[in-house]
Design goal:
The protein has 2 domains: 204 residues, GAF domain (Beta-Lactamase), CATH 3.30.450; 111 residues, no CATH class. The chain is 43% helix and 15% strand. About 6% of the residues have low confidence.
């Protein structure tokens, strides 16, 4: 039996066993087969937009692309030599920016891991970019977890990027076609993708509200200890009225998506003003308060500030915090 047929039977058996309620992966397979009417072992080349259509999408995503570009460069410098390419896709699953190396480009282009290709679930079934858009969470689709058998040769780690209204506007993805790529290394890639996606999201938010005060809000539930993923930022006007919030802050304080009328800061249930900090300066006071809040636990402090542990250590050293 061919590997392609084995993969198709794996999907069919999982759907027949009705595992979709327990497994997000199987639920995505179910969407691919039943909702989008896709066939896992039916080959078709990736759909691609014209160059004109691609340029229109680049123009639409605008300033976000400008913010993301230097971070895409750094991600590629970190993982490009490992047979990876870096992609930034728009809200429809179309990569609008890419970093890759010449030796691998021929393979990636054939697979459709290229600017202008269409990677939503409706077209390609379960995949990193498309499934991330649907589920609005960071994830890795590792080889045989893809729906289409043509895609089982590579692994994708993707993370969503949300705008100032809490809506998903882009996906950051690292894809690898290495046959020896382990799940452990994929998790390392995913961690880096998540961290960079949060940086892009935070800078995009700060740029949109550049004329306003921006504070860092709490994103850990005081009673349960659950941490809401993402950077929890709130934008205020001159009267300390809330005029914007990131997705993490909206989820924590039940603000919902989209526009909202200005709200007084005091209306946020459980908001701790002492934890609030000027995100743009990320000064000594905010870090010392966060260290005190989490009893010196640097992992929790880094998560609350929306930065990596390495970045936190650098800030602590630079600011002379003991």
């Amino acid at each position: 039996m061919s590997n392609f047929r084995q993969h198709a039977e794996l999907i069919e058996n999982a759907l027949a066993a009705d595992k979709a309620a327990k497994s997000p992966l199987v639920a995505s397979w179910q969407r691919s087969k039943l909702l989008y009417k896709l066939n896992p072992d039916k080959y078709r080349p990736p759909e691609r937009l014209s160059q004109y259509e691609l340029e229109q999408r680049k123009e639409k995503i605008g300033s976000l692309l400008h913010i993301a570009n230097p971070r895409l460069d750094r991600l590629y410098m970190a993982f490009g030599s490992s047979g990876c390419c870096v992609l930034l896709a728009d809200e429809d699953g179309v990569p609008v920016a890419r970093r890759g190396s010449d030796p691998d480009d021929k393979i990636f282009n054939r697979l459709g891991l290229w600017t202008g290709a269409l990677w939503n679930e409706q077209s390609e079934g379960t995949n990193g970019i498309g499934t991330c858009l649907i589920e609005k969470r960071a994830l890795t689709i590792h080889k045989e977890q893809h729906f289409h058998t043509k895609n089982v040769g590579f692994s994708c780690s993707a993370a969503p990027i949300f705008d100032h209204k809490g809506r998903i506007i882009a996906v950051l993805d690292i894809s690898s076609c290495r046959s020896d790529l382990t799940k452990g290394f994929s998790r390392l890639i995913e961690d880096n993708v998540i961290n960079v996606a949060r940086q892009i999201e935070a800078e995009n938010f700060c740029q949109y509200f550049s004329g306003n005060k921006i504070i860092l809000a709490d994103n850990m539930h005081a009673e349960t200890g659950v941490i809401y993923q993402g950077v929890s930022l709130i934008a205020l006007d001159n009267d300390d009225m809330i005029i914007g919030a990131t997705r993490a802050a909206r989820r924590f304080y039940n603000l919902g998506e989209g526009e909202f009328s200005p709200l007084p800061l005091s209306s946020l249930k459980g908001f701790n003003v002492n934890i609030g900090a000027d995100y743009m300066s990320a000064g000594k006071r905010s870090i010392k308060q966060a260290l005190a809040r989490f009893n010196g636990n640097k992992s929790k402090v880094a998560k609350a500030l929306g930065i990596s542990r390495a970045t936190l250590y650098r800030k602590i050293k630079r600011l002379g915090i003991k």
